[in-house]
Amino acid sequence: MMELMKSLCFSFIIVASFTTLFSVADARRFYVGGGNGDWAINPHESYNTWSARNRFQVNDTLYFKYAKGSDSVQLVTKADFEGCNIKNPLEKFDNGEAEVTLNRTGAFYFVSGDQDHCTKGQKLIVSVLAMRNHPNVSPAKAPTTAQPPKAHSPVSPISPAKAPSTAQPPKSPSPVSHISPATPPSTSQPPQSSVSPAPEKTHQRGNVLLFP
């Protein structure tokens, strides 16, 4: 995690460095009022009219040229600009020439260090836009932490589908129970009479047996 954070911070530093480099290299120098940058009373064109015709962006510079010791340039607030108040400047330049960097977006208010000059119109408003377009610099991609390979879930082998057999196996004949041949009916013997025949009666006459 710490390595990732360090890599991201390093990437942002690189991007910021490239952005600054391109914006500074592409910055423009504007001579105030056009011409040689003369900062004076009654210019040939109103300073604010000149400003409205130009497009100022971050890191551009303004060049002022004036007589050293008799004039100066002051960066002031909006309220002091409108009232030509020169007592509380944000910045003051009085060495005969000045080059001011427009280091932010928004409005910059400049007045002459001589209040009488200011009331006569020696004052300037500059509206600064964002930086100029510069080549897109893609941030370096942070190294991705390698993810362990995911284990594949075991796949059960799939048996090839058996083609349906068209031939039907011969049906086995159902077992036939052996039928014993019919036993012919036995000729029944007439029942023997249980009655013994009556003995014939004999008559004996003398030594001769007489049968009826």
Please give the radius of gyration in angstroms. 66 Å
Uncertain stretches of 5 or more adjacent residues: 15-24, 175-181, 193-199
Mean pLDDT: 73
Indicate the CATH topology of one domain: Immunoglobulin-like
> What global shape is seen?
elongated
Order of helices and strands: HEHEEEHEEEHEEE
Strand order of the largest sheet: 2-8-7-4-5
**CATH superfamily heading of one domain:** Cupredoxins -  blue copper proteins
In CATH terms, what is the architecture of one domain?
Sandwich
User: How many helical stretches?
Assistant: 4
The total strand number stands at 10
- CA-to-CA gap between the ends? 151 Å
Largest sheet: 5 strands, mixed
Classification by helices and strands: alpha+beta
The helix content is: 10-25%
CATH class of one domain: Mainly Beta
- Strand percentage, roughly? 15-25%
